[in-house]
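With this grant's support, we have paired protein sequences with backbone structure tokens. One protein thus recorded is set out beneath this paragraph:

_____
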Amino acid sequence: MATSATPARAGGAATLLDPAVLARIGSLDLVARTVVDGFLGGLHRAPALGASTDFAEHRAYLPGDDPRRVDWRLYARSDRLHVKEFEADTNASVTVLLDVSKSMDFARGGRPTKLRYAKMLAASLLWLARQQRDRVGLITFDSAVRDFVPASGKHLPMALHALDRAQPGGAGELTAPLRASAEHFRRRGIVVVISDLYVEPEAAVDAVLQLRNRGNELLLLHVLDPAERDLPLDDATGFRDLETGDALPVVPKTARAQYRALLDAHLAALAEVTNKRGVLYGLFDTGEPLEAALFRYLAARQRLEHRR
């Protein structure tokens, strides 16, 4: 997926951030740091200041300041009035729901599997969310919820550990696990669903919309291997379903044309339905740099802020 918002990167940085290179890094924590640092380009976002309980700094007292924020102990030592400033509590929770169904365990051409790519994507999003001082959480699922890390400002290490241990599961399903996941959301925030979306577009969006309780902003990230989009059949004479094991004989040239037509229609329908129903949607292949997804996350966060 092309995006005009993605800045150009130097050749060395582009190589470092290539998914095939990142997939060789064992630690998802290190992958996430590398991706987010590259995304931010060395620019450090100044934290917002507000009225949470996390102390940030002192500044000189100004007429009109709340006397309750005066640091009287500092006044006793310095004989000067200073007020305490605090880092704002954004009240945003960011939860990633990751599809770990069997169909995600697919790769061709030396690229990472869809699941490995999705793990790196999830880790990078969670790391960036913590840079924004948001609470982060994680849910993994196939036909049911497999792992749950509640959103918290302290749960990034726990979420990354859960990502590390996630393995391909069984057959995939969206409706039931997402309905069960919706019960865990107690605060308004951003919910990110990462999946290969092998379901009907309307059914996929209906399932995701179950997560819109309490005004959550929804972000749906669709991950495919380039081979799933181009279908390079060569001399292949059949397919095997990754989840059921069923075999299907094919005539290569005919099957390729039919498959591409069906996939194009599927992707167009997903884009149309998500746009119509207010779900941010992004299509990614496993050879694509991860930064584009971070722009999608920041767009979702901005929309959430504007609705407050």
